[in-house]
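so my prof wants the structure for this chain in the tokens format not the other one, which i didnt know existed until like an hour ago. anyway here's the sequence
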Amino acid sequence: MGVGIGLGCAEFPFSGAAAYWRWIDMCEAGGVDSIWQTDRIVGHQPFLESMTTMAALAGRTRRMRFGMNVVSLAFRDPVLLAKQCATIDVLSEGRLLPAFGIGSPLGPEWEALGVDTRTRGRKTDECLEIIRRLWREDEVDFSGAFYKLKGVTVAPKPVQADLPMWIGGSSEAAIRRTARIGTGWQAGGDPPAEAGRVVAAIKAAATEAGRSIDEDHYGAGFAFHFGSRDAPAVGKAMDAYAKRTGRDATHAFAVGDTEAILARLSEYVDVGVSKFVLRPLGSDDDAILDQTRLLIEKVLPRAAARWPRRAKVAATDR
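here's what i got, hopefully its the right format
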């Protein structure tokens, strides 16, 4: 099982667009697998909007794939979102990695957008069904509790014949949702042991549903920093994480040297995770770029040698 290492942003950590594009260009040239954008809509902290960021990445990059980590479906119109994803996939020649979830019940978006948190699971299930069908079918009729469609079509269809549909979340409902309709799973800050439990549960549920998910389509993420825990950016990020989640921040951060970061990757690989979204921690533009450069130079080659990625065998070649 080969390992793919992507990079991501939660809050927008750069001074402006020029620094952000310097970072993206470094990732593109340095062999980073993919770029991921956290989905937030309102709040005092700066976050880029996910779908417009995907469109910008489609135009800026030529090799890397990119995705949303993860789009909260209850905040979006499913027909518009299906159209946006299809358009971005066409313009990027098949490099979009859509990932969807139900959204944190603590997010400020629920009140701001007038959405009832109690409906989020049911709305998400309807959205997933609508989006999946719009990507594949010529005309879609749908009658649900929240959405009703009659003869709806989106064109052009995505370039990827089976556009990925990664699902986030670790609840029992999220496990069933992934097993029923997902093509991959993305952890939401789960420690390795919990991620392993969810991976095993999804595999069992998928088997019961008569489906299978590729072994290398299970993802997790954590922040990293080459250096000391005493660095201001590290302490600030760990304090904010603990305050926001109520969890011990240790598992969500890998701080130290190359071996420390590889060790954290290995903890996840050992429980069935092979796709990663890592977040560089730094106090300014140059620090974030330096952290990214160190990851590219020191971690990516070691990870590629330890967990080589193998070309998938086409069905006709089996």
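also thought this was worth mentioning. The CA atoms of residues 266 and 273 lie 9 Å apart.
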